[in-house]
UniProtKB/TrEMBL annotation:
Protein name: Acetate kinase
UniProt entry keywords in alphabetical sequence: ATP-binding, Cytoplasm, Kinase, Magnesium, Metal-binding, Nucleotide-binding, Transferase
Name of the gene encoding the protein in the UniProt record: ackA
Pathway as given in its UniProt record: Metabolic intermediate biosynthesis; acetyl-CoA biosynthesis; acetyl-CoA from acetate: step 1/2
Catalytic activity entry: acetate + ATP = acetyl phosphate + ADP
The species this protein was found in: Thiohalocapsa marina
SUPFAM superfamilies: Actin-like ATPase domain
Binding-site residues, ATP: K15, H236, L237, G238, N239, G240, D310, M311, R312, G358, I359, G360, E361, N362
Source lineage: Bacteria, Pseudomonadati, Pseudomonadota, Gammaproteobacteria, Chromatiales
GO cellular component terms attached to this protein's record: cytoplasm
Sites where the protein binds substrate: R119
């Protein structure tokens, strides 16, 4: 068995990647986006046996996650056993092929799957490692759904459908929260009455764990020492954003909390906020909980400050003198710098600060402004290295600190799917012999 399939099933999308586990090459990938909308988008890419690259895009209504998984099954069948693409078949032919795929072993055999890795957003306190999925694990993920009402049910949909499609293959759940389960109590408890933690699970969990873990391992490789000896501040800056303090390779603090709303300024989320603002808005503007949820999760952050949530456009506007755009960048970088300072104080010694995610990997200005004035802490950015165009193939992971800077500043593209694939594979290998799987 030489391949690993990774499935990331979100609230309105399913993404997948098929890896060759010998060299972790991506053999096939794709997505079904906008599930439940009139025009769902299906995209797939694959390599044929000779390494030729193919890609296809189509638009068709996909009502449910089960229908979305069917489309992924058809795409995989097209890639692995050369069935015709769905847009060349009638609905009847599609139904017939799907039934044959579900009844037979042809696809499972062609896929040569060693494991299917599933992204699961919330593992609560129960899961601190990748975990082989069985009925108890499914129940536990369902049990945790109140903590992530948009994500866990969608993740579960993906697991349930994939288990039916690939019944004889180990399925592994990889949790966004797992990497942060090493946080000490002093970092994860809120200063609110004890029973809220004991009886209602109110504590900080943190997210983006798979990404923070992946870039931490790559950073250790770049620093030339074992991860267990590295102290790092990792900054995942995408549409969602979080910072993590890593001591001796383990997460000891992270900026997202019980939900992904806490912490840094994000595309549409406010990040840190005085909780009394909630009461104020409720009392004075009469906003109810659903409206407040939407306001703080989907109308705030960069979007709230300047009307746009795409950092590329915000930078363009700021360069043209748009004051709101300039303020949005300023607030974002101010918050980032506060977290860098706080985590520096927590760690005492920092080997490297790592930038990742769409903004962290690409936006030189955010990197420069969040490190500006921190030279006394040994954080010295090299402006030329920071802005130098980099080669997409050879120079993706790069060090942008001055030669003399005691703290290295690393830009490392994240790859959450690859990390899920590796962890799923290790979990399966561990389940055979040693014990890298637990719940
Ligand atoms: P997601 O959390 O949805 O995976 P990404 O990690 O793709 O998000 O990050 C999206 C953000 O990255 C957007 O704000 C986008 O504008 C920003 N981004 C992507 N490329 C660049 C770039 N070249 N310069 C500045 N920002 C960029």
């Amino acid at each position: 068995m030489s391949k690993i399939l990774v499935i990331n099933s979100g609230s309105s999308s399913i993404k997948y990647k098929l890896y060759d586990r010998d060299d972790w090459r991506v053999l096939a990938s794709g997505s079904v986006m906008r599930i439940g909308e009139p025009a769902s988008e299906i995209h797939s890419e694959w390599l044929d046996g000779r390494g030729e690259h193919y890609s296809s895009r189509s638009t068709t209504p996909i009502a449910t996650h089960a229908d979305g998984m069917d489309r992924i099954l058809l795409a995989l069948a097209g890639q692995l056993i050369n069935t015709p693409p769905p847009h060349e078949m009638t609905e009847e032919e599609i139904d017939h092929l799907l039934q044959a795929l579900k009844d037979g072993e042809a696809l499972a055999e062609a896929a040569e799957l060693a494991a299917v890795g599933h992204r699961v957003v919330h593992g609560g306190e129960a899961f601190h490692l990748p975990t082989l999925v069985d009925d108890d694990v499914i129940e536990a993920i369902r049990h945790m759904s109140p903590l992530a009402p948009l994500h866990n049910p969608a993740n579960l949909d993906g697991i349930l459908v994939a288990r039916e499609l690939f019944p004889g293959i180990p399925h592994v759940a990889v949790f966004d929260t797992a990497f942060h389960q090493t946080m000490p109590r002093t970092a994860y408890r809120y200063a609110i009455p004890d029973y809220l933690y004991r009886e209602h699970w109110v504590r900080r969990y943190g997210f983006h764990g798979t990404s923070h873990h992946y870039v931490a391992k790559r950073a250790a490789h770049m620093l030339g020492k074992p991860l267990e000896q590295c102290n790092l501040i990792t900054l995942h800056l995408g549409n969602g954003a979080s910072a993590t303090a890593i001591r001796d390779g383990a997460s000891v603090d992270t900026s997202m909390g019980m939900t992904p709303l806490e912490g840094l300024v994000m595309g549409t989320r406010c990040g840190d906020l005085d909780p009394a603002i909630h009461f104020y808005l409720s009392k004075h503007l009469g906003l109810d909980n659903d409206t407040l949820d939407d306001l703080l999760n989907r109308q705030s952050g960069l979007l709230g400050l300047c009307g746009v949530n795409d950092m590329r456009e915000i930078q363009r506007k700021a360069q043209q003198g748009d004051e709101a755009a300039e303020l949005a960048i300023g607030v974002t970088c101010h918050r980032l710098k506060k977290y860098i300072g706080a985590y520096y104080a927590e760690l005492g010694r920092v080997d490297a600060i790592v930038f990742t995610g769409g903004i962290g990997e690409n936006d030189a200005e955010t990197r420069a402004r969040s490190c500006a004035g921190l030279e006394r802490l040994g954080i010295e950015l090299d402006p030329q290295a920071n802005t130098r165009p980099h080669d997409q193939l050879t120079d993706l992971e790069r060090d942008i600190a001055t030669a003399a800077s005691p703290v290295r500043l690393l830009v490392i593209p994240t790859d959450e799917e690859l990390e899920i694939a590796r962890q799923a594979f290790e979990a399966v290998a561990g389940a055979d012999g040693s014990s890298s799987v637990s719940s």
